[in-house]
């Protein structure tokens, strides 16, 4: 199979190490990974701010760039969710998009649903307690875990794949699926509320005794990371691919 890396704009600019870890992880399973240079923003900020024409243009551009690949894989749950669940608002009748939509995956989804991995490409030892952060888009639109409001048996994709890491101690905050408060442009429009929610969420993760907050969406980790740095807290945010590739110790 050939797999195209979909790297969201803010990951490209602020967290390139997450993009490189994603590529390394896929290549470790013998996959031919391609990074299409023509890719750009998926259009989520445009959609969130009411620019329907701009969001439509972004959706058509994304489809044109990625339509010829077997799979499109990204380390950002919120951007994948936008492509899979919100592009139909703009280009539902586009035949290329209809064919592409089921081939777009968040990285943990891809490892579990397509590759069906039961091991990591190389042994990884990470002897640290970590607290799992379930991001809203991944939780409720991609099915990364069981939302507590549905009152169904608990499951977590992140927890399950972290069991492949030697020495790790996985913990859950008391309110395991509470929002971190980022919400994209919500953090700009309502900064006081956003920060207050983020402070509460960081405190919940700290209460587990974890050294790291681990998630699959870099936007949430970015928001909580900013609060952590501002408050000089010892806990650190870490994208799950950094642990799965053995890069976490240098984060």
TrEMBL record:
Pfam family, one: CCG
Domain Cysteine-rich intervals: 3-83, 130-224
Top-level taxon: Bacteria
InterPro entries attached to this UniProt entry: Cys_rich_dom
Ranges in coiled-coil conformation: none
PANTHER family per the UniProt record, alphabetical: LACTATE UTILIZATION PROTEIN A, UNCHARACTERIZED PROTEIN YKGE
Full protein name: (Fe-S)-binding protein
Lineage: Bacteria, Pseudomonadati, Pseudomonadota, Betaproteobacteria, Neisseriales
């Amino acid at each position: 199979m050939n797999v195209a890396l979909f790297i969201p704009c803010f990951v490209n600019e602020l967290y390139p190490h997450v993009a490189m870890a994603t590529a390394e992880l896929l290549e470790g399973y013998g996959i031919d990974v391609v990074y299409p240079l023509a890719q750009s923003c998926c259009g989520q900020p445009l959609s969130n701010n009411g620019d329907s024409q701009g969001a439509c243009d972004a959706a058509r551009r994304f489809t044109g760039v990625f339509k010829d690949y077997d799979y499109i894989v990204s380390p950002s749950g919120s951007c994948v969710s936008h492509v899979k669940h919100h592009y139909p608002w703009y280009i539902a009748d586009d035949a290329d998009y209809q064919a592409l939509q089921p081939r777009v995956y968040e990285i943990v989804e891809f490892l579990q649903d397509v590759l069906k991995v039961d091991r990591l490409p190389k042994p990884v030892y990470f002897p640290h307690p970590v607290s799992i952060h379930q991001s809203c888009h991944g939780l409720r639109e991609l099915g990364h875990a069981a939302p507590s409001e549905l009152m169904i048996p608990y499951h977590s994709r992140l927890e399950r794949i972290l069991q492949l890491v030697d020495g790790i101690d996985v913990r859950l905050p008391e309110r395991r699926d509470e929002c971190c408060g980022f919400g994209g442009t919500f953090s700009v429009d309502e900064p006081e509320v956003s920060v207050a929610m983020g402070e509460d969420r960081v405190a919940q993760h700290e209460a587990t005794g974890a050294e790291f907050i681990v998630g699959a969406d870099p936007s949430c980790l970015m928001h909580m990371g900013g609060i952590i740095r501002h408050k000089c807290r010892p806990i650190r945010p870490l994208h799950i691919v950094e642990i799965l590739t053995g890069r976490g110790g240098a984060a």
